[in-house]
Each structure stands twice: as structure tokens, then as C-alpha cells.
């Protein structure tokens, strides 16, 4: 990163003898001092043991000094990432603590990943879910604008690194879905390699620009292969567009409800899925399908050689596949990776768009194809480099990736041309004709042959894992003998010899499947990871670790065997689907267990049958399937709906509006207002009132602003509205009229009592102020900041003894609390 050139200012020395740079921390610590400020601002878990803290900014050296004075927690590490110009100045001014232990260090952005992966063992801490990222006070206040960019880049790289760790160590749900999909994943996507040379494809995703492509597609349907991500199936169907290829990769159940309308597409559409796709989509798909990735979650000759594309989204995998298919031009639509000007994340017609603008706070801005700066969110931002790499790959092969959307993010190697500037030629032959030429036959005989091969592979794998389970049981018994837990007085060292032999057998004779078992239950094994590897182990720790290791082996082996048994039953069910005469009772049982009521239509499609061809006495058995299919396709109470609704929660809207207001971003507030006005969000009226109030306040229409704030009554928004109302009254010097609102705020949120109490004190209502302070401090007796304000109020009210008592109470809790010491000195004068 190249931070902006900023005047770091002069050195400020506060009343507590602490030195900061005026352009970095300003007067942040002038009133309380850094120690009291940190204790008031950060929870104790911020500095917990066995945790890696990545901290942006050092507060001119005060934060590392604070940590050193508190004594570093056991097993904890602290890596400070500082701006280069600030770090250089701090070193020149000798503001950084000089003697620091090895587990506390200062680096710049360019050095942080290498340092984190090295001495700071970030990978191990990721395994333990013990990486904490936080901002110093300087980074929160952002007086130096470089901190915002530093935090943004850090957050992005952190998430990418975390994702990489998950991908490298394996994830159980991917392996589970792989086995659940094993019978359907018969043909790999690489069969299409080079099959569409010289042709043009259009890849459709769910971004705001999607609808702009619809007229173009309809006008040029005979010149385009239409590829789409599964989540926009409903939008395409309602528009009358049938894609040639539909893509899906997500293994989670939310993906099914986001994409379930794809099951309404005709079987002529080709489904290209990642091997770990949601089984409810693949198992109920009536048409042909091809899989990306491996077929089996262990090393096997049945795994085809397929490319691995950069990026983890469905758009990445779809674009990579399109490039390998040989398309001369690949047009993108809905691949925006940024918000619309109204703050919408998805195309009209998508649920996210109906609920209004993106509510959560975002730190990211990107340049669009037409040059304006659009907001985006972290997952969109993280997807940009992968798409650039894929577009570069296409370019190197003489292919073009083009995004005609002016408001889509500008990405290197992706051309921007208007729709009118794109040249198209008619397809040489229909899409289905090409498929017939390049794909193997998919009939009853080929399916049965494949089921036989894959069942043999799964059975062999089960035998291997059963041997691993037996070895793990033996190793556990040896571990007990080694430490004299089997009735012997002393350790049995022959047990150690046998344990070494078992480990060698696992690593050599059963290498592939022992790795698979470990990856299956990686979480259990990672619990044994230690971040203090330099410390000597006690015998008890060695025994406990050995027992934990083989218990993890045993538990994971049992889980894998159970999963393999379920897989074999599912394969047998697929074999039974191919029989000339069907026994529907066990088939229906399997389909309902798998939550695949639409599997009946797959059977009928494969058999070339209609429902009427099934005996009338059998057809009533289909009733639970029909009811289940209708329910899955129509329910509005799905995990997908709940998740999307949570993105527009009132608390997020409040924080978003507060952030825009504090930044005085009138333009974005007005866009937010427009998007909410056009939404179906249940809380839209409250959002509108709060937003209109903030706009009026920034435009200095204060009476209108107060009227707008008075209209807000939602319990999660009313506090913000009343706070703004109070602020307007206090700015006008109208303390009297602010008191009822302050009292109401305190009733809503007890943490507001200190402010209410202060205002009572300022208006001479000392007794009422004392009552409010005392009420609050009974709830939060260790809130030293509020107790200090209470003492100051009493001092100003000439209640010297009461003030002295409060200062002394503070010092009982923290004898080094400098503001209280200063207060006592002032009283003594």
C-alpha cells in the first residue's frame, strides 16, 4: 500500500506524561490518559491468553506500553501493523518501548503476512480460532487517513488467508457432500474442453446490472450460449430466458433455497456443479449434469484431472469453465462486484434487492467501468483478484472477457464495451447438438456400470478405515500401559514401541486413508495444537495429548465408516431406481431421508415414463413426495429468507445511517432513502423517518429534523433518533427541553444514565443528579470513567467530602488511576 502523505504534527504531552503525535492521536488521551482509556474501551478478552492479536496502529507506542505494563497473557502474541511514515517517526522520536519480548512486534503492512506466518504462528492460531483483529484508538479515530486503507487491506487479506487455511486443511462438509453426490457425479466438466471454439457465451450472475442484458439476450439468442448462476433461475424464468448451462457450487442448505427455482428449468439445460454442491439441487435435477473437481475425497484413479480455478465463488468457477470450453468471447452481466448507485447489491427481482440497500457498514470503494467510485462489501472485494487472474488466462489464450455494464467494477484484463460495440456471429449448430457430440451416453446400462464401480471403491475405502479404527483402539490401550494405567506400578515402555509401530503403519500402509480420516475431523486434531511449542512438556501433558490424538482418530474413523455405509445404501437405492419393476416404498424412504422429494421425476425421466404409467394402486404412495416438493419450492420460512432478512436488520440500518451521517455523506444518505422508499422492508417507514431526519439535520433544517426523529418508534432505532434529537437541543443550548428525552433514553439504555446525570448537574439539580449517578453505579460499580464524572460533578457543586469519597472509591479499584489522583490533589489545595 502507498499511504497518503500526511503531516504527522508535533509531539503532544498530556497531563499524565504521555507523548503522542498530534496528527495521529490528537487529544484522544488528554483527559483520562491511555491506561484508563484502554481499560474503559477494550474488554478483557481483547488481551486473552493463547490468542494472536493483530492490531492496526500503536497509538504512538502507548498501546504496546500498556500491554507490557499489564503483563502479557500466557501463550498470547501481539503483532502491531503500523503505517510506514508513522513507524519511522515513532522510532526517530523514541516513542516506542525499546525492550520488548519476541511475542510482541511492530511491522508495516508489507511485512505483516510474512511475520504472522513465521514467528507468530498465525496458521496454528487460525486452527484454534484464536486470531483477533482490532484497531488502535488512532485507527478508530482515523485522523491519519492511511489507517482506513490499512484496516481495509488487512481485513481483506485476513479473510483470504483464513479461507486458504480452510481450503488447505479440508472441510468436512465438502467431503460429506462429495460422498452424498457420488452417484450423480458421473461425468466430469472437462469433457467440454475446447468444444465451443469461436463462439460467444454470456455469463449471468445476480448483480444489479443483470436486467440490462435481458433485451440483448432475447434479440441475439441464436448467437449466444447462455450460462447462468443458479441463484438467478427465478429471475430468468420470469423473464422468459432459458439458460443453456446453469452453475452451482455451494454445499450449504441455504444454497438450495437460494437456487431451488432451477428445478423448474427444462431438462435440456445442462447443470455444471462443483463436486460438493448442495445434494438437494443435484439429486433432484432431471437433466444432464457435469461435475467440477474431484469425484472422491481421497486419492483414487477415479478422480479425473480437472483444472483448479482461482476464486471461491460460483462466478469464478463458471468463468474458468467457460474459458476452458474455448469460447472466443465471454460476456459478463450481473458480475458487478459492487453496489448500485442506490446501494443495492443484487438485481431487481432478487430478494436482497426487494429488501432495500445494503445495511451493514462497508469500508470498501472501487472504481467502476464508467469511472465513478462505488461501494462494495468484503466478499465482493475479495472476488476481484481471482476474476482478474481468470481474465488474464483468457487473454493469454487469445480469448476476450467483456463486461458491458458501466457501473460494474473495473477489473484488469476485462474489457468494457457497450452492448452495441460487441460483435456476434450465429452459432454453428444448436447447443444440444454439440453436447450430443462430446458427452458420453447417459443411459440405464452406463449408469448401472458406474454404480458398480463406485460401490466397489466405497467398500474398499470402508475396509481401510475399519483397519484404522482397530489400530486407533490398540494405540489407546498402549497409551494407558505406557503411563502405568493398566494395573502396573510403572510405565510399560514396550507400549511405546508398539505405538511407534502403529504410527508407522498409519503413515505408510494406510497413508491415503489416514490423511482422509484426519481431514474429516480436522477440528478434533487441531484442538491438540499448541502455540507454546518452545515449552517443555510434562508427562501428564504427553499422556493427555497421546490419548486425545488417538481418541480423535477413533472418533473420526467411526464417523467416516457411518458416512460410507450411508453412501453405499444411497448407491444401492440408485441401482434399485434402474430396475424394470420398481419397489417404491424403500425408494421413497431414501428420497425423503435425503430431502429429495423431486427424485421421483428423475426416475420417471430416466425410465421414459409418465406418472400415468405407474399402477394406480401405487400412485397414492407419491403423496408425501408431492407435498414435500411443493413445500420445499414454496416455503417462505427458509434459512435463505431468514439470512437475507438479517442483512437488513434495524441494528444494521441504524449503524449504517449513523456512519453516513458522521461522514456527512449527504449523497449516500439520499441514495439510501430512495432505495428504502422502493423496498418492501417491513421497517421501511422507520428507516425513512430516521434517514430524512439526518438529511434535514445536515442541511440545517433543524425543526424538520426534530419532527422526523419524533416519528421513529422502532425499539432498535428510537435510541438513535432520540440521541440525534437531544443533540440538536443541546447544540441550541436548550438543556431544559433535552432532559425529558435524556430521561427516556436512560430508561431505554441504562448506559445513558451518566449523560442524563451530568445534564441534571449542569442545570443545578444536584440531588437529582446524585440519584441518577448512584442508580447507575449500583449496576456498574467498576465503571471508573462514570464514577470520575460523578466526583467531578460533586466537586463543582461544592460537595467536597462527597467528591473526595468518590475519588477514593476509584483508587480502591485502581490505585494508579491518574485522573482521580489529580482530583484529590485539586481538592487538597
Automatic annotation (TrEMBL):
Domain of life: Bacteria
Pfam families cross-referenced by the UniProt entry: MptE-like
Residue ranges constituting the 6-hydroxymethylpterin diphosphokinase MptE-like domain according to the UniProt record: 177-341
InterPro entries linked: MptE-like (IPR002826), TPR-like_helical_dom_sf (IPR011990)
SUPFAM superfamilies tied to this protein: TPR-like
Full protein name: 6-hydroxymethylpterin diphosphokinase MptE-like domain-containing protein
Protein source organism: Magnetococcus massalia (strain MO-1)
Lineage start: Bacteria, Pseudomonadati, Pseudomonadota, Magnetococcia, Magnetococcales
Amino acid at each position: 500500500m502507498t499511504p497518503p502523505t500526511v503531516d504527522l504534527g508535533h509531539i503532544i504531552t498530556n497531563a499524565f506524561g504521555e507523548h503522542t503525535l498530534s496528527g495521529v492521536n490528537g487529544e484522544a488521551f488528554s483527559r483520562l490518559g491511555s491506561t484508563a482509556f484502554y481499560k474503559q474501551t477494550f474488554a478483557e478478552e481483547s488481551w486473552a491468553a493463547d490468542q494472536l492479536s493483530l492490531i492496526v496502529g500503536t497509538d504512538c507506542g502507548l498501546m504496546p506500553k500498556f500491554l507490557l505494563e499489564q503483563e502479557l497473557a500466557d501463550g498470547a502474541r501481539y503483532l502491531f501493523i503500523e503505517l510506514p511514515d508513522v513507524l519511522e517517526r515513532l522510532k526517530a522520536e523514541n516513542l516506542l518501548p525499546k525492550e520488548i519480548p519476541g511475542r510482541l512486534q511492530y511491522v508495516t503492512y508489507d511485512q505483516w503476512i510474512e511475520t504472522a506466518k513465521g514467528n507468530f504462528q498465525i496458521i496454528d492460531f487460525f486452527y484454534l480460532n484464536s486470531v483477533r483483529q482490532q484497531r488502535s484508538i488512532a485507527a478508530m479515530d482515523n485522523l491519519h487517513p492511511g489507517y482506513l486503507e490499512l484496516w481495509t487491506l488487512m481485513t481483506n487479506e485476513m479473510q483470504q488467508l483464513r479461507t486458504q487455511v480452510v481450503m488447505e486443511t479440508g472441510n468436512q462438509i465438502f467431503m460429506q457432500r462429495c460422498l452424498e453426490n457420488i452417484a450423480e457425479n458421473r461425468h466430469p466438466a472437462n469433457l467440454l474442453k475446447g468444444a465451443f471454439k469461436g463462439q460467444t457465451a454470456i455469463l449471468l450472475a445476480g448483480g444489479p446490472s443483470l436486467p440490462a442484458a435481458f433485451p440483448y439476450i432475447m434479440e441475439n439468442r441464436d448467437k449466444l450460449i447462455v450460462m447462468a448462476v443458479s441463484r438467478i433461475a427465478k429471475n430468468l424464468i420470469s423473464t422468459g430466458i432459458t439458460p443453456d448451462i446453469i452453475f452451482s457450487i455451494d454445499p450449504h442448505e441455504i444454497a438450495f433455497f437460494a437456487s431451488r427455482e432451477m428445478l423448474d428449468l427444462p431438462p435440456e439445460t445442462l447443470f455444471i456443479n462443483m463436486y460438493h454442491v448442495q445434494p438437494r439441487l443435484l439429486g433432484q435435477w432431471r437433466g444432464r449434469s457435469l461435475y467440477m473437481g474431484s469425484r472422491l475425497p481421497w486419492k483414487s484413479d477415479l478422480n479425473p484431472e480437472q483444472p483448479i480455478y482461482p476464486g471461491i465463488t460460483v462466478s469464478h468457477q463458471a468463468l474458468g469453465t467457460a474459458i476452458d470450453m474455448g469460447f472466443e468471447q465471454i460476456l459478463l452481466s450481473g458480475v458487478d462486484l459492487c453496489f448500485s448507485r442506490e446501494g443495492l447489491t443484487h438485481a431487481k427481482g432478487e430478494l436482497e434487492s426487494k429488501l432495500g440497500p445494503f445495511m451493514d457498514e462497508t469500508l470498501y470503494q472501487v472504481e467502476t467501468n464508467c469511472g465513478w467510485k462505488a461501494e462494495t462489501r468484503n466478499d465482493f472485494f475479495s472476488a476481484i483478484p481471482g476474476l482478474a487472474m481468470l481474465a488474464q488466462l483468457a487473454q493469454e489464450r487469445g480469448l476476450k472477457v467483456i463486461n458491458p455494464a458501466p457501473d460494474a467494477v473495473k477489473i484488469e484484463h476485462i474489457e468494457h464495451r457497450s452492448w452495441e460495440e460487441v460483435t456476434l456471429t450465429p452459432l454453428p449448430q444448436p447447443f444440444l447438438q454439440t453436447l450430443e457430440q462430446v458427452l458420453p451416453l447417459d443411459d440405464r446400462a452406463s449408469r448401472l456400470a458406474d454404480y458398480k464401480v463406485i460401490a466397489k471403491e466405497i467398500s474398499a475405502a470402508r475396509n481401510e478405515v475399519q483397519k484404522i479404527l482397530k489400530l486407533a483402539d490398540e494405540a489407546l490401550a498402549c497409551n494407558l500401559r505406557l503411563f502405568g494405567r493398566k494395573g502396573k506400578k510403572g510405565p510399560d515402555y514396550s507400549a511405546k514401541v508398539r505405538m511407534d509401530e502403529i504410527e508407522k503403519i498409519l503413515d505408510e500402509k494406510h497413508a491415503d486413508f489416514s490423511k482422509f480420516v484426519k481431514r474429516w475431523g480436522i477440528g478434533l486434531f487441531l484442538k491438540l495444537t499448541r502455540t507454546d511449542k518452545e515449552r517443555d512438556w510434562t508427562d501428564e501433558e504427553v499422556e493427555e495429548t497421546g490419548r486425545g490424538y488417538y481418541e480423535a482418530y477413533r472418533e473420526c474413523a467411526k464417523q467416516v465408516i457411518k458416512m460410507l455405509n450411508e453412501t453405499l445404501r444411497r448407491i444401492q437405492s440408485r441401482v434399485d431406481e434402474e430396475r424394470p419393476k420398481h419397489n417404491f416404498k424403500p425408494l421413497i424412504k431414501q428420497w425423503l431421508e435425503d430431502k429429495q422429494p423431486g427424485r421421483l421425476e428423475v426416475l420417471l425421466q430416466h425410465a421414459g415414463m409418465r406418472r400415468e404409467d405407474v399402477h394406480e394402486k401405487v400412485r397414492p404412495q407419491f403423496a408425501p413426495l408431492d407435498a414435500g416438493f411443493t413445500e420445499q419450492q414454496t416455503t417462505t420460512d427458509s434459512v435463505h429468507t431468514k439470512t437475507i432478512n438479517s442483512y437488513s436488520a434495524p441494528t444494521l440500518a441504524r449503524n449504517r445511517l449513523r456512519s453516513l451521517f458522521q461522514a456527512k455523506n449527504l449523497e449516500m444518505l439520499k441514495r439510501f432513502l430512495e432505495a428504502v422508499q422502493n423496498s418492501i422492508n417491513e421497517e421501511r417507514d422507520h428507516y425513512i423517518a430516521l434517514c430524512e431526519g439526518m438529511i434535514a439535520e445536515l442541511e440545517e433544517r433543524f425543526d424538520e429534523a426534530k419532527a422526523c426523529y419524533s416519528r421513529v418508534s422502532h425499539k432498535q432505532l428510537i435510541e438513535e433518533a432520540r440521541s440525534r434529537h437531544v443533540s440538536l437541543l443541546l447544540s441550541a443550548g436548550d438543556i431544559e427541553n433535552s432532559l425529558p428525552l435524556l430521561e427516556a433514553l436512560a430508561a431505554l439504555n441504562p448506559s445513558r444514565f451518566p449523560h442524563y446525570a451530568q445534564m441534571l448537574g449542569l442545570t443545578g439539580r444536584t440531588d437529582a443528579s446524585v440519584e441518577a449517578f448512584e442508580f447507575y453505579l449500583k449496576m456498574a460499580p467498576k465503571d471508573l470513567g462514570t464514577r470520575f464524572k460523578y466526583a467531578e460533578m460533586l466537586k463543582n457543586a461544592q460537595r467536597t467530602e462527597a467528591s473526595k469519597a468518590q475519588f477514593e472509591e476509584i483508587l480502591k479499584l485502581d490505585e494508579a488511576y491518574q485522573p482521580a489522583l489529580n482530583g484529590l490533589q485539586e481538592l487538597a489545595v
